Amino acid sequence: MNVRRLLPGLMLLNALALVGGFVLLPADSFLRLAVLDLGQAFAALLAALALLGTARGGGGLCRPAFVALGAGCASWGFGQVVWSWYELVLRVENPFPSLADVGYIAGIALLGVGVVLWPKQGGKFSRGELVDAALIAGVAVLFSLQFVLLPIAETLDGFSVEAVFLLTYPLSDLAILSVVVGGLLLQGWAERGRLLIVSAALFALVFADTYFSLLGDSYATGQYADLGWTTAFVLAGAAALLPSGWQRERAARVRAGAVGATLTALLAVLIGVTFVNEWDHHRMQALNVLGIGLMLVLLVARTSHSARVRTREAGELARAQAELVKAYAVRDGALEASRTGVCVFGTEGEARFANTAFVSLLGPARSWDAFVARIRRLAGGEPRELGQLLRVWSEDGRYLSLGFAPLPTGELLATVDDLTDTERERQLRGRLVAETVAAQEREARRIGELLHDDAVQQLTALGLRLELEAQRSALPSLTSLASECGSIISSLRLLLGELSPAVLESRGLTAAIDAAAETLRSRGVDVSVRPFAARLAPELERLVYRLVQEAFSNVLKHSSASRVDVHLATAGGSLRCRVTDDGAGFDPDRLQAAVQDGLLGLSVVRERVELAGGRLLVESRPGHGTAFSFELPLDPAAVLVQPEAREGSA
Amino acid sequence: VIRVIVAEDHPAVRLSFETYLDAQDGIEVVASGENGREAVELVHSHEPDVVVMDVRMPVLDGIEATRRIKELFPGTRVILISAYEEAGLRESGHEAGADGFLFKGIMGASLAECVREVAR
């Protein structure tokens, strides 16, 4: 741990000492030789320590790559130690090839392996990217053949171990170059920031090696290649010491285009230098080099352009995906906040999303089939067609309204609303109204019976006695009193009929309405009741009768009409009733105010009609009479809520 | 003389019927009862010409009493009296064999007229 902490400092010191020695010390001094030889060995070995140490401490995804890279650095460092042994201890010129070359070449191979083992971030590389990488590799091969391998081969005299080693350097560097270029152009690497540093390190190595290969025998320690190698190992060590995920953002901004442009520039410089060198000796050869070089530059430019386009497209795709993810998050957030339970079922019937409201009302959503089975159990049958509303009571006594809708995506949307409180309130109101109506009916009967049993009887007796007295005494005033008594009894009889419409039960609406019309007729109003033979549910008949009575009462009080028509009919599951008069009528605007003030008693009427699931319409114009119409559903269950209904679960 | 029996549960009404009819020329109230069963028994014992009877009475109502009287004494005339229009009451009365149907509150003169009419 302490060594690891010291490593950056050591690497920096070593690099400074090396550069200092390179620049400041006399060219032929032994000290300069020692500083450069040992500095490079230290640089490689320190990089190896950094890489292997990071790999040992975990290294994350990069661990296998770091092990290979570390081994490569160690191998190269070993080669450099051997080289230094010859130069500094034995003080002889290094034999070529030697054990040092084995270390160098094995090191380069291991470094290449390290890049190949670099971790990838999910998925494969696209075919286009691989083709581009292959093109770049091809370019590198052509380039190397033209400028490195062929010139070296020309200097060799036939096959020898020396020749093999001399060619192995550029060949292995070529492989590394291809791997690194591929690595930079391909998307989808993990830890791209560190890979960038490693790539830079290997570029430095490749250029130093190429320089070395071109110099061949004329190389001696102390030339610029030494700086290249040192740079390579400092960078390799730095890559290991940087934290995981280092500068992910900045690394992502290093575009393939920039890499391509750099490569193109380097190629152009090399081609330019070669062209100028060749021009004096072989003009044709120089032109040839220029032609090949320009083609290579074009190829690299073209490749980097397409890589740039792909990068841009990938960026746009990523942005679009991010937008989509955001939109989904917004949608899901909104759905989550909704009090309506929502579940989306996929095309395979799997539950893809269910908000909290849904889960709390119907439990966890698993699949469409399980959902349907559950609803069927609650509803006691198949859910109706999709798109229709279905109302069910859940096992825990909640009144649920379920809706189904196919989505344009082929998915199915199920919604559930908790109507328990609304339903309970509706039931309570219905029950109150039912009980109120029943109580009114009972009270009316009771009053009727009281009137019959007492007032009518007493008046009957009184009338007969008055009449008898009138006979006996021949007093006209007594006769008149007896007659008035008879009138009072007749009025009471009408009242009794209205209070307790026995005729409604036995002979139906037409007869009962006709009987109720007697009150109007006794005031000289011509009442016509259109025959209506159908018998309805008793509750419905009572309600209709009371509503018509209310209409008659309004005619009597407000309209001074001479004619009233009552029309009853059934149509499409509804009962329609219309009571029209030819009276004074009124301003509908004033009607609204009058209804609100309770002047017309219509608000109670309207409430009764609406509770029964019907509609009330009152139309009028001053001087054009009034039409009082209402429509009620014939379904008896809809007339009044049965008090015992769902008692158990409510 | 037309012999009449009155059946009515309300004492004041019964008394007024008795007094009024008894005061009319050619009409004599021979007995009165307060329900349908008494009316049937009185018809047995007095064999009257006309029975004036309320429809709604305890023990046995006017309709049923009419049916029994008409079974036993087809010649006895029955006039039913009701306090108010009740569905099908008039029809039921006719079916049971009643000869007349009146509402309470009618003038006594009409009642006496009706008695004479049915007894003719």
Q: Give the integer mean of the pLDDT values of chain B.
A: 88
> How are helices and strands ordered from N to C of chain B?
EHEHEHEHEH
| Oligomeric nature of the chains | heterodimer
Uncertain regions spanning at least 5 consecutive residues of chain B: none
Strand order of the largest sheet of chain B: 2-1-3-4-5
Give the strand content of chain A: 5-15%
Specify the biggest β-sheet of chain A: 5 strands, antiparallel
> Can you tell me the residue ranges of chain A where pLDDT is under 50 for at least 5 consecutive residues?
636-650
- How many DSSP E strands of chain A? 10
Structural class of chain A: alpha+beta
According to DSSP, the number of beta strands of chain B is 5
- Which of globular, elongated, flat, extended, rod-shaped describes the shape of chain B? globular
Helical run tally of chain B = 5
Tell me roughly what share of residues is in helical segments of chain B.
40-55%
Judged by helices, strands and strand pairing, the structural class of chain B is alpha/beta
Mean pLDDT of chain A: 79
Distance between the termini of chain B: 11 Å
* Distance between the amino and carboxyl termini of chain A: 71 Å
